[in-house]
Amino acid sequence: MKITYYGHSCVLAEAGGRSVIIDPFLTGNPASGISPKDIRVDAVLLTHGHSDHFGDCIEIAKANDCPIIAVFELAEYCRSQGVQAFGMNIGGRQSFDGFKVKYTLAFHSSSVSVGDSWIYAGEPGGILLTMGDKTFFHAGDTALFGDMRLIGEMNKIDAAALPIGDVLTMGPEDALLAAKWLRAEKVLPVHYNTFSAIHQDGSLFSERLSQEGIKGFPLKPGESFEL
């Protein structure tokens, strides 16, 4: 599986001729480095409804004639916007053509902004994405929580994307513990440096990971690594 980072929490995963994008916040993201028009995928996956994750999902789904996969309430909102959608919920697993998705807990909030109003978008989630014999875990926006140990015990996680920005999610110290609990072999730090409030040093975080025997990948937008 090839993982390409497009800033903030956006990740493109490719394997076996299939590709999916997670949390495609590209327009308005000063660090994305790519236009939604350049995205070619078989599905869009969302961890929750906040605008810096929901992003360009509707445009991308329409352009690629592909489904948006999300927690039920968020999926139904997407469907109301004229796209294909597949609703799931926390703990559920589903096989698609060339990949599998399972939603895990994430401790955060989730809503969609419409004008001056906020629409409830179901529970936030993490995503276990399996393509071939590799599993990538996107934790979404989350605090550190004890059941990360259980997620790590139940799944062989080849790589994980963990937020390190603090303020709105866990910070580097908690993310380091999360990586250990998840037993991840490789870690991509996400959700940092997009805005001044979440400034962190991804390279320093990766150095701390290496001290625990975990390979860190503080990627710049457009850079990739292989599982």
The H/E string reads EEEEHHEHEEEEEEEHEHEHEE
Q: Mind summarizing the main beta sheet?
A: 7 strands, mixed
Our measurement of the CA-to-CA distance between the termini, rounded to an integer number of angstroms, reads 5 Å
**Number of beta strands:** 16
CATH class category label: Alpha Beta
How large is the count of helical segments? Answer: 6
What is the CATH architecture annotation? 4-Layer Sandwich
Percent of residues in β-strands:
25-35%
What is the CATH T-level topology?
Answer: Metallo-beta-lactamase, Chain A
Unreliable spans are none
| Adjacency order of strands in the biggest sheet | 6-5-4-3-2-1-16
Please tell me what the overall shape is: globular
Helical proportion? Answer: 10-25%
- The overall pLDDT, averaged over residues, is 97
CATH superfamily: Ribonuclease Z/Hydroxyacylglutathione hydrolase-like
InterPro entries: Metallo-B-lactamas (IPR001279), RibonucZ/Hydroxyglut_hydro (IPR036866), UPF0173 (IPR022877), UPF0173_UPF0282_UlaG_hydrolase (IPR050114)
Function: Counteracts the endogenous Pycsar antiviral defense system. Phosphodiesterase that enables metal-dependent hydrolysis of host cyclic nucleotide Pycsar defense signals such as cCMP and cUMP.
Protein name: UPF0173 metal-dependent hydrolase GRF59_13050
Family: Belongs to the UPF0173 family.
